Recover the amino acids of this structure.
């Protein structure tokens, strides 16, 4: 007759069995995810860069998963309205935020933000990025960053520069550069991207900073010149344009980026599944081509790397906003 298994052993076997079952269930969950439509909240208006990019990514996502990716535009208050809607959504992976750098800038500018950028969200993946470029009206005769700095030093009242809005990453990058170079650059905010470039083309605001795709047509016609990009490395989209580091101003690794985040406490298995789906979509040649046509490059990252980027820029932009006294 077989001896009965000791109680302690039976408990150990039971616990091991339950652990194995739980592990199988955790791994099984992503396989069937998503099982219904996913809502992508875009904290910007329809037709904006964020909206266009979210839809560009969403279409192949729908094909890959067999579930619709429904874009829901919730603009307002520097992205706070849309971000807050996602922070308060169920943490099941079916409501996501497609956001940009303003996600980490708004808390520094607006006095009351109803969520914590770090504790209120689970980063999923960085999706794409574009070089932020300093342009100048070609009629000025300025050809390099050294020329621009020399011009600013000869102009006590400062050289005017434009950006699409107050408090964008482009605006704050120029504030950082002014301090690094010890020059006076006067911000003349516009009501949007077209207006900012029009002011520079007209010569009223000689310098403009923004996304390369917005200024590229004017560089091609010779009306504007691209002086430098605020990146650690040259961009494949404009390999002839030097970085600010090459111009003598290091630590400007500051692209315009877009990424996906979920509400806090979204299961890790779901976050990993979503990250994997993003990687598959960005590997599609037509997606990369469509992004490039709009001045963006695929920039997939792990959730951990995206989280580190968010924390780094949150702290950095907060310091710049405080120093420059930027108000909404």
């Amino acid at each position: 007759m077989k001896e009965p298994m000791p109680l302690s052993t039976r408990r150990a076997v039971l616990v091991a069995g339950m652990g194995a079952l739980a592990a199988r269930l955790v791994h099984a969950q992503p396989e069937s995810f998503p099982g219904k439509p996913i809502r992508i909240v875009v904290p910007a208006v329809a037709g904006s860069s964020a909206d266009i990019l979210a839809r560009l990514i969403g279409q192949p996502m729908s094909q890959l998963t067999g579930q619709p990716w429904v874009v829901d535009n919730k603009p307002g208050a520097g992205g706070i309205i849309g971000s807050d809607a996602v922070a308060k959504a169920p943490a099941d992976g079916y409501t996501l935020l497609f956001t940009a750098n303003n996600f980490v800038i708004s808390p520094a500018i607006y006095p009351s933000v109803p969520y914590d950028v770090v504790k209120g969200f689970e980063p999923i993946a960085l999706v794409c990025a574009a070089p932020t470029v300093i342009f100048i009206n070609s009629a000025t005769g300025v050809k390099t960053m050294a020329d621009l700095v020399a011009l600013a030093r000869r102009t006590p009242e400062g050289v005017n520069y434009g950006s699409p809005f107050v408090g964008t990453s482009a605006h704050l990058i120029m504030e950082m550069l002014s301090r690094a170079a010890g020059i006076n650059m006067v911000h003349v905010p516009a009501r949007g991207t077209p207006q900012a470039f029009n002011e520079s083309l007209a010569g009223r605001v000689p310098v403009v900073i923004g996304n390369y795709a917005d200024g590229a047509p004017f560089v091609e016609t010779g009306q504007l010149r691209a002086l430098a990009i605020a990146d650690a490395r040259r961009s494949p989209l404009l390999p002839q344009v030097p970085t600010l580091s090459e111009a003598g101003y290091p630590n400007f690794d500051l692209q315009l980026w877009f990424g996906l985040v979920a509400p806090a406490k979204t299961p890790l298995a779901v976050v990993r599944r979503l990250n994997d789906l993003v990687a598959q979509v960005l590997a599609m040649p037509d997606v990369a081509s469509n992004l490039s046509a709009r001045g963006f490059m695929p920039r997939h990252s792990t959730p951990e790397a995206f989280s580190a980027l968010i924390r780094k820029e949150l702290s950095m932009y907060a310091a710049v906003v405080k120093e420059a006294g930027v108000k909404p």
About this structure: The mean pLDDT is 89.
